[in-house]
C-alpha cells in the first residue's frame, strides 16, 4: 500500500510529494522547498515517519519544481531521476532564476535518465513512466496502475492544462499527450498534479473545457 503526502512550497505554490510504502521506502518527487522552514518541514516529515529515501524524481525541471533539489540531494545522497530531454531545462534554471530576481546555482549531483514505458519500482510497488511532452519537452508522469493514481507534474490540472507559453512549450503536443497517454486510463485514476487540487481522469474527460 502506497501513501502519498503532499506539501505546498515556494512562491509558485508548487506541490512537492513524498510517496512511501509499508516498508518505509520512499521517493521525493519535485522538491520545490525554497525556504529553510520549508526544507525543515520536509525533513521532519521524513524523519518522523522513519522513511528511507530511495530516489528523487522529477516530473520535469522547471525552476518551481526544483528549488529544493540541491538541498535534498545533498542531504539524502540518492540519484535524481528524470527524462533525458529535460536536462536542458535543468541547465537553464540559473538563467530563469535571474529573471525572477534571485540567484540559483547549477545543480551538481548524480542524474539518471528515465525512458518511456520504463517501470520504476519502490519495493513491491511499480510506476510506469509516461512521456507527456507539451508543457515541457521532457515531462513525465509516474503512473501506479495497482492503486490507480499518477503524479503528473504540470500536464493536467483540475479543469485546466499546463502552460504552453514557456520555453519549448507546445499546445498541440500537450493536448495530444493528455488525450493519447492519460485519457486512455481508467476514469477512477487519481491525478496528483504540480499545482492545486488533485483530480481524476474521468472528471477531466467530462468537464475540462480544453477538451470540449
Question: What is the tally of beta strands?
Answer: 14
**Low-pLDDT segments, ≥5 res:** none
The CATH fourth-level homologous superfamily: Ribonuclease Z/Hydroxyacylglutathione hydrolase-like
CATH architecture: 4-Layer Sandwich
SS-based structural class? alpha/beta
Shape: globular
Q: Main sheet?
A: 6 strands, mixed
Q: In which range does the helix fraction lie?
A: 25-40%
Binned strand content: 25-35%
Q: State the domain count.
A: 1
Order of helices and strands: EEEHEHEHEEEEEEEHEEH
CATH topology: Metallo-beta-lactamase, Chain A
Oligomer: single chain
The main sheet orders its strands as 1-2-3-4-5-6
Average pLDDT works out at 97
* CATH C-level class: Alpha Beta
Distance between the termini: 36 Å
Report the radius of gyration as a whole number of Å: 16 Å
Report the total helices: 5
Can you walk me through this structure?
The protein has one domain: Metallo-beta-lactamase, Chain A, CATH 3.60.15.10. With 212 residues, the protein is an alpha/beta fold. It is globular and about 45 Å long. The mean pLDDT is 97. The N and C termini lie far apart (36 Å). The strands form three sheets. A six-stranded mixed sheet has the order 1-2-3-4-5-6, with helices on one face. A six-stranded mixed sheet has the order 7-8-9-10-13-14. The longest helix is centred in the middle third of the chain and has 14 residues. The chain has five helices and 14 strands.
Short structural description:
This protein is α/β, with parallel strands linked by helices and 212 residues long. The chain is built from five helices and 14 strands.
Amino acid at each position: 500500500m502506497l501513501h502519498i503526502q503532499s506539501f505546498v512550497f515556494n512562491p509558485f505554490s508548487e506541490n512537492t510529494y513524498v510517496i512511501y510504502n509499508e516498508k518505509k521506502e520512499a521517493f521525493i518527487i519535485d522538491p520545490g522547498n525554497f525556504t529553510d522552514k520549508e526544507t525543515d518541514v520536509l525533513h521532519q516529515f521524513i524523519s518522523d515517519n522513519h522513511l528511507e529515501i530511495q530516489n528523487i524524481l522529477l516530473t520535469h525541471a522547471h525552476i518551481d519544481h526544483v528549488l529544493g533539489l540541491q538541498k535534498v540531494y545533498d542531504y539524502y545522497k540518492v540519484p535524481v531521476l528524470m527524462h533525458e530531454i529535460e536536462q536542458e531545462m535543468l541547465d537553464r534554471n540559473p538563467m530563469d532564476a535571474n529573471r525572477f530576481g534571485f540567484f540559483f546555482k547549477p545543480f551538481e549531483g548524480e542524474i539518471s535518465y528515465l525512458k518511456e514505458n520504463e517501470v520504476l519500482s519502490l519495493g513491491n510497488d511499480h510506476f510506469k513512466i509516461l512521456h507527456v511532452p507539451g508543457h515541457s519537452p521532457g515531462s513525465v508522469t509516474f503512473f501506479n496502475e495497482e492503486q490507480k493514481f499518477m503524479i503528473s507534474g504540470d500536464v493536467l490540472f483540475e479543469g485546466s492544462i499546463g502552460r504552453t507559453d514557456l520555453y519549448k512549450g507546445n499546445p498541440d503536443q500537450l493536448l495530444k499527450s493528455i488525450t493519447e497517454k492519460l485519457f486512455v486510463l481508467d476514469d477512477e485514476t487519481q491525478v496528483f498534479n504540480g499545482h492545486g487540487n488533485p483530480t481524476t481522469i474521468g472528471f477531466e474527460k467530462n468537464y475540462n473545457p480544453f477538451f470540449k
